[in-house]
Each structure stands twice: as C-alpha cells, then as structure tokens.
Design goal:
Blueprint lengths: L2 E4 L5 E7 L2 E7 L5 E7 L17 E3 L15 H5 L1 E10 L2 E9 L5 E10 L4 E10 L5 E14 L5 E9 L2 E9 H4 L5 H4 L7 E4 L8 E2 L2 E6 L5 E6 L6 E7 L2 E7 L3 H4 L3 E3 L4 E3 L3 E6 L2 H15 L5 H4 L3 E3 L1 H5 L5 H14 L3 E4 L29 H11 L3 E6 L3 E3 L3 H5 L7 E2 L2 E2 L1 E2 L2 E3 L5 H17 L4 E4 L11 H18 L4 E4 L9 H4 L4 E3 L10 H6 L9 E5 L7 H9 L5 E4 L8 H17 L7 E3 L11 E7 L3 E8 L5 E5 L8 E7 L5 E6 L4 E6 L5 E9 L1
Parallel strand pairs: 22-23, 22-34, 23-24, 24-30, 30-31, 31-32, 32-33, 33-34
Antiparallel strand pairs: 1-2, 2-3, 3-4, 5-10, 6-7, 7-8, 8-9, 9-20, 9-21, 10-18, 10-19, 11-12, 11-14, 11-15, 13-17, 15-16, 16-21, 17-18, 25-29, 26-27, 28-29, 35-36, 36-37, 37-42, 38-41, 39-42, 40-41
Helix pairs in contact: 8-9, 15-16
Length: 693
Amino acid sequence: MVTGEAADSAVEQFTWGHSDLSVHFATAADGTVRITRLAGPDTSGGPAGPPLPLVEITALGHGSGWSGPRFIDSALGGRLRYRSHRAGREGDEHRLHVELHDPASGLTAEVGYSSPDGVPVVRSLVRLRNDGPEPLVVQSVSSLLLGGLPSPDVLDVHRARNDWLAECRWSVEPLRVRLADIGRGAHEHDSRACLAVSSRGSWPTDGHLAMGALRDRTDGRTWLWQIESAAAWRWDTGEWRGGSWLAIGGPTDADHQWREHLLPGAEFSTEPVALALGGGFEEALAALTAYRRAARRPHPDLTALPVVFNDYMNTLMGDPTTAKLLPLIDAAAEVGAEYFCIDSGWYDDDAEGWWDSVGAWLPSARRFPDGGLRRVIDHIRGRGMVAGLWLEPEVVGVRSPVAAALPDEAFVRRDGIRITEHGRHQLDLRHPAARAHLDAAVGRIVGEWGVGYLKLDYNITVSPGGPLLGHARAWLGWLRSVLDRYPGLVIENCASGGMRMDGASLALAQLQSTSDQQDPLRYPPIAAAAPTAVPPEQGAVWAYPQPGYTDDEIAFTLGGALLGRIHLSGHLDHMSARQLALVRDALDTYKGLRHELPRAVPWWPLGLPAWTDEWLALGMRGRGVTYLSVWRRAGERERLLPVPHLAGRAVTAEILHPSAPAGRVSWRPGSTELLVEVDGDRPVCLLVRLTGG
C-alpha cells in the first residue's frame, strides 16, 4: 500500500510495500525522487549515506556528472523529476509505478516495482519513452539503483563464477579489498573506482551467474539480486558519500556494444531485476527462491518431478541409433525412469559430421532404418515413458540447406553480415521466417510425432552487441508460444550445460541443465551450489552410473542428484541385475522424497562449496523433515555438520542412500550437530533424513 504525505514544504514522502517489504521514497525540493529506506520484516537500519536517484541513464550527448566507470552520476538521471505515482495489486502481487520526466530532453521514465505478497523481494524495471522532439540514443539505463547502503568497510560482496564444466562457484570477500580507501576527507570526492561484473557473449551466464550479493558484517543484513536477462547484463557497486551504492541493469554500450535508438514517441523497457532481503545470505536466498517459484510459469512438471533418462552423458555422446537405443530404453524403463530423451545426433545423415550441417531437424534414415525414428519413439511410449528429443533451435549450420533457404534478415547480422561462429549461423527470432522455421520443426516433432519433452540446447556464443537483446526477448516470446500451443510439453533449458542459467529463462522452462561435467568427482560442488541459481525442483543434475563402476562408485554417482532433478544416464543396458537394483533403489528413494522439493528451502551446513573442498553438504528444509546430501571426496573420515534450525528438538537421523550405507550418522542434541562418519578412504555420498518434533 502507498501513502503520500508532505513531511514539510521541501520534501514529500510516500511508502509502498506489504508486511514483509517496506520501501520509503522521498521527493526533494528540486523534484528528484530517491529511495530512502528498503527493509524486510526483520531488517532495520536507516541509510548509511545519501540516497541516489531512482534511475541512471547515459545517452549520446548526455554523459555523466563525474567521469569514470561507475554507473552513477549520469546527467539524465539527475534531471529526472517526479510526476506521479500509482499503486495497485494484481492477485498476490503488489505493484508501484513512479513516473519521472526530464524537461530538457523530453525523456519520460516510468519505474515499475512489484513484489509477491509476504516475500521480501522487490522486482524492478524501467520503461523509457521519448516525449521530446529529437531522437535519443540510449547507451545504458539502470533497472534498479540503490544508494545509502553501508560503507564498503563493513560490506562483503558475493559473486559466482560460472564457467563451462565449472558452474556456480561462489566466492566472498570484503568489498574494501576491491575499493581502496583514497581518503575522501582530503579530496572531498569519492573514488571513481567500482566493482563491476557483467556478462560476456550471448550466453547470459558465461563467466558469472547473473547474480550477486552484499552483506553487512556487523548485523548480517543481506541484499541478494538476480538479473532476469537471457541476453546481457551488468551490475556494479562502489563507495558513495560515506556509504555504498548498487546499480543493476541490462546491456550497456561500454560492456556489450549495445545502444537503443529512441525516435520521438518510441519506448524501451529494461531487463528486470529482483532484489531479495534477509538477515544473511541463506535467508535472502530463501526469499529469492520463494520469489522464483511465484514468478515462474505454472506447469504440472514442477510438482510431479518425473525421472528423466537422457542417452547423452558418458553414454551415447551424440551417436544414437535404433540398435543402441532399444535396449537402453528397456533398461531405463526397468529401473523406473519416466521420461526418455534422445539427445543430439538423431538428425545426422551426413558423412562429414553434423556440427555445421544442423538446422533442418529431420530424422536420419541411416541411423534409424526399419521404421525410422518413429519406431524408437513408439518403443519409448510402449515402455510407459514420455519420449523426448534434443534440439538446438537457434543455430543453423553453414552447410545446412536451411542456411540458403532462409533470407539474410532471418539471421543475426553485424554491419549487414551474417554472424558465423564455430561453423554455425545464429537465427534472429524477431524475423517471421526464422520463427516460422522453428514453429514448423516443433509442430512436426511435438504435434506429429508425439514428443513430450524437448531439451533445448545452445552451443555457440556470439557478440552481444546489436540485435542480441531483441533476439533474446523474441526467443523468450517464442518459448511462451510453444508452451501455449502444447501446455503439457516439458522444456529443459540448456546452453552447453549452465551457460543460460538466468532468471528470465527459468521463469519459462521447467528444467534447467546445471552442467556438462562428465567427472563424477568434480560434479559435487556444482550440484551442491546449483540451488543458489535454480530452485531444486528445476535443477537437472546428471547421474551416470556405469557397468564398470564398483557398487560404491555407482552409489556416489547417483547420490549427488537426489536433492535436485535426476538426469539419469549411463550404459544401463550393460549392467548386471545387482547393479540395476542399485539404480532402482536410488530412484525409489528419490520418488519417496520428491514431493518435498517444490516447497523445500536450500541451505549449506558447511557453507557454499569451494571447487576443491573435500567435504561438501547441501541441505533441504521441508515441512517437518530435513534432508542432507553429504559428499566426502577425500580427507578425514568424519565431519560435524551444524543444524541450528533443529535446536531443542528430538531428532532422528537415518541414511536413505545408499541402501547399504558406507558410513554412519548420529545426532548430537547438545550442540545441534550431525556427526557423519564414513568407512574407508573411497569417495562417499550419503543422503540423510532428519526428522523430529
């Protein structure tokens, strides 16, 4: 609810929010509007320094007021004056719109805030409209801007490296490490330095997750954010008049060669961002997880959580045939898989290889004789599973007939030249011919063949400049249209594993690939940290047991996926009856707990994992039950795990996986800790259930 009152003749104040979120605004005598306080239900404390305008904008001919790399002090942002605000509610979502205007240029900016009821998260975006007489070339615009945060002296900054095969690697350090104290009192100016993190290329989470956090070490207050862009983004933070600022937005000219030409009357909307508040990182992440669940598209898969078998990882590796698939399908059905996805290669009829010839998405006659691919799909359904196919819709190989059939305008171009990367062209889904091509492919695969699962991959990254933002938005629009036409279809979002693990994609796709990592000993830190980026019921984690593995190795490989979405693979068709029983036991365990995952809140009793940690742990807090995945890759044979939320309760601890435990667990009520002991020096992964009053 918003209330407006004049505190005095110089300043008008108004407040917006709900029981778990409070945002205070003040309009100064010069007409500029600022956020003076942003708080959740258990966070308090006023601003540490002066607030900033609601929006910062740079445009050609309108630079900054204090030159440097910081995304603050823009000339346009400082000239935007308050016009009006309006508040409302749609269902469980509270909304606020604040309209600002720059009389000099004629630019109007409407800042839109929203928040799910009862969740301390604010979502923000900015809509620009050129109401002036001259064109305006925008070079950057913030989606959310906050000043008045605590000093860098007390702030820690969290960010997550996200590289191919090494996703979700969080680190934390004092912000002051990145921002030298230059002695503001002597210079009467703040440092021009800032900590800036941005995307690179057209993979939105290549290099870093589109996330970050600031935490006040003195009281634990945490500001955790995600940028909801399938294209490009940037956030930066720095020192500002005794406090700190945070600026979050989409692509910029400086970072991504992006500019928006706003003709008179034209409009542009920024990429949305969501900011969660909490008394610590895990509390803020719990709020962000609740927001993600509220913001995404509803789908029955998100509560059913069926087990998916995919033939790729450490198995067929893009070389499917009828002869290879039929026994694998039978084995997957025998252990209890519910979906069977045929991964890449099903379209390959080219003796020179399929990488640079893809795009037509027609089945190979060479790979699937005697009934073709339809025979294999029918066999999947005949074994009681839903059939799935891999597709890389946005790319067209340079040798594909589609490359010549579609007009140049249907592809992403720079300076009139088609982008070519790793033997592929990039479609531009803003063009109707590109969209019609993909609609025909999906209509054939889903509408005619009856495929119920699509793994949508994306294995090239191109320059983010020029049309990439427009294409990314058209891509999301196309995904919506596919799900509108086929509401039961399940879509897995993949880009070389986790290179497109962004909030915009997660709001539409039912599953998210977390990695292409093939080494079961290197997957645990990815699996353990994945719930920071994706709710557990959407995070697809590979489990690829092999017939050459020992029983312990099979249990280790399967165990790491039990608190996410199992993506089963491996040569099950070559396994012994005993080995298949181990796989079946793990899947039965998963099916017994999966109903808890759509409501569970992740936490990390040993802290967020580092890449080389010997012991790692991921917890899920459900309703009256807590689950823990505990990995021991090397080192000591026992470890104490603090479980403070179960203090004062009579707790029972039991190992659910493996069925023949390779260790022991015991609850220590006095210290509210779980003691985990493992046998021998081999790697072990245990799934533990804690229940209590």
